[in-house]
Description:
CATH superfamily of the largest domain: DhaL domain
Number of helices: 18
Largest sheet: 4 strands, antiparallel
Low-confidence stretches: 221-235, 312-318
Mean pLDDT: 85
Structural class: alpha/beta
CATH architecture of the largest domain: Alpha Horseshoe
Oligomer: single chain
Strand order of the largest sheet: 2-3-1-4
Order of helices and strands: HHHHHHHHHEHEEHEEEHHEHEHHEHEHEE
Number of domains: 4
Radius of gyration: 28 Å
Amino acid sequence: MTLDVLDLPALRRWVVIARADLARHAAAINGLNVFPVPDGDTGTNLLLTLDEAAREVAALRLTGLAESAEALARATLTSARGNSGVILSQLVRGVAEIAGRGTGEQLDHDDLRQALARASVLARSGVARPVEGTVLSVASAAADGCADGSSLAEVSGRAITAGREALARTREQLDVLREAGVVDAGGAGYLLVLEALDRVVRDDPSPADGDATPEWLLAAGPVSLGAAGSDDCGPRHDGPAYEVMYLLDDSDDVRVERLRGRLDALGDSVVVAGGPRVWSVHVHVDDVAAALNAGVGAGRPHRFRVTRFDVGAPPPRPVAGFGMLVVADGLGDLDGVRGSQVALVDVADVRDQPGAVVDRLRDLGGDEGVLALTDSTAAAEIVHEAAAIVGRVVHVVGSHPVHVLAGLSVIDGDGSLVDAARDALEVVDEAVVVLLERTGAEQTAQVLDRVRESGAEVVTLVTGAGAQVPAELLDGLAGVEVTVLESRARGWALAVGLE
């Protein structure tokens, strides 16, 4: 029986059917993907976006339409993969905004019309340089086509008809689509989700053609996604080398608009969508660090995802061996760190420029990977996140300033990365360490107690910027070999290592 309104069970069925359809046809959508980058992942990105969001919302066990739609909108935004995933989140956002305006737990035909119209506006406003012949054209046509629908079935049906016509036109609107003989991949995915909605409205959960690929998802001619510079004759990619995505919190519309402009100057395919509490940022760039740093001025960027496009020339192969990196607070001038053939990043720079570690990891030589020594768990987390972005093998060792010094003292730069990491871990595991935010009688007694408990014969004291080793501490260490080093660290007063 055809539905007159959409309620929470209908919303859930829509998500389930759309996810099943995307899973069934992801490969076909990938085969259409030649714009803006011929990397063949649009179908996969849409499926992963909706799949992760659906699992997240299901775990919440919500019982209201408005709160469920809002949760799904947020989850779809934060799970978004690629610009197609971000734009899909705006379709869900349109539904959530309209559901949130009402007092009931249902959406009628007028609500659905408004939701599709709002989705089109949100999607277009998030794109720095809207291009016709893309998913934006399909979303606009679907919204306009159902404007005079007088029932739920008329609204969904007319949206589908107008969307299909707009999708067919995309083949002629963009030269790259015409040459490849395909329609826009993002538009095809968007239409597939709308068709799932139409089947829910008509209470017809099974596609009429079963598992067959719909005709409008098939390419009109042969399509090859060969890499640029290869012998294949498929679409070539001459644009930026990386796709950068992250979430942005603690921002506002003014700063988001400024960010959108900065990213547009750095690269292309810029989409910044969401709000008012979280935004999803997407851009294609060559300078990954600049894209990440641009987010710092707009709020708090996090959950970074960087993908190198496989359609260009491969990156240069690193030299043999492994690279070494130190991420620490003000240790660069210490003997054992200075001149130790390592790349150094100060954590203060990381706070202001989150791309600093990414740049270092990418530039470091060594085909085995990188050994990173860190002075805190926070620094270690930064390196782990940067390693995931760059996609390099990185062994991270250390959570204390003395760990950095001890690790550097035992690393054999001519050995293997695995051996170096093992040696550094062994000396770090054996180290007894103390970190003091300030010095005084209480802290002196604490250190002396640890010395006595450990039976240490060698003590290393590293002072932070402007701090002094208490005379009482030095007196108490009489008879023990003591090394005092002065650092520029700003986050602590005294680091102590016992051997």
